[in-house]
Design brief:
The structure is a single chain. The protein is built from 10 helices and 13 strands. It has about 300 residues and is of the alpha/beta class. It has 3 domains: about 120 residues, Periplasmic binding protein-like II (D-Maltodextrin-Binding Protein, domain 2, 3-Layer(aba) Sandwich), CATH 3.40.190; about 80 residues, D-Maltodextrin-Binding Protein, domain 2 (3-Layer(aba) Sandwich), CATH 3.40.190.10; about 80 residues, Double Stranded RNA Binding Domain (2-Layer Sandwich). The strands form 3 sheets. Strands 2-1-3-10-4 form a 5-stranded mixed sheet, with helices on both faces. It has a 5-stranded mixed sheet with strand order 7-6-8-5-9, with helices on both faces.
Amino acid sequence: MTAKRNKVIIGTRGSKLALWQANWVKEKLEKLYPELKIEIEKIKTTGDKILDAPLAKIGGKGLFVKEIEEALLSRKIDMAVHSMKDVPTEIPSDLHISAICEREDPRDAFISIDGKPLKELPHGAIVGTSSLRRMVQLKALRDDLNITSLRGNVDTRMRKLKEGQFHAILLAMAGLKRMGFEHMVTECISEDLMIPAIGQGAIGIETRVDDDFVNEAVKPLNHKETALCVLAERAFLSVMGGGCQVPLACHAKILKNNTVKIVAMIGDPDGEMPMIKDSKEGKIKEAQKLGKELAEELLGRGGSQILEKIYK
């Protein structure tokens, strides 16, 4: 790349994990373009400011990206680095996801205070998680557990576990690996038992559509297989239209026979209606179409009633 600018500013949330991700992107770009000065700008988002309420209660979409996108649109920053699971399907028309980096382990991690796996937790054990998606799927596995809302960064959640406020907690395996906490994991929960969040484990780079310099610069960071899978998951989400008030999950992966398999679920946060779960498999080039078709099938099998109940 022929340098037309000598400096680029990356916008990110200020959490340790978000900064790890931004620095990872920074280091990749510095290796590609040694002549380019890259700075990181920390931006506090709505989701970072409200820590005393479950995400589902705060409502809305883009809780962890809105302020960063505003900085991008006003040209205070040149690119944004996000966890793709935080990015809504609808983004401002002047912005786009220009690269999706290679995915880390997308599974959920189970960490217990005494090293007991999920199936051996005592009846009534308190399990903490911030995710309705995890809550609904955990209830399907162990409806005898006391599942309680837990927010905060990884350090905060681990501290609360060590203090005995919880018997166990659920976190994203990708974040634990990136932060060097993999050794604390009691067990990884199979994708078959607990479907990951849309985009979980993938880092996305958002840029201005008209910024040719930055768009060209980040191209080498795009991982084709990850991007294909995440876009299929986001196609599912675009049809479902759910925010963090809806327990939704969708995960796509490319199989050895050169096809893509997508699994998904929608659940009722109150547990009054049964969880709906299904999968589709097909040609890689039809991944996004398959994601949309899977969403339509789940809506037709009772998903629409769940959404109506949540949003009424």
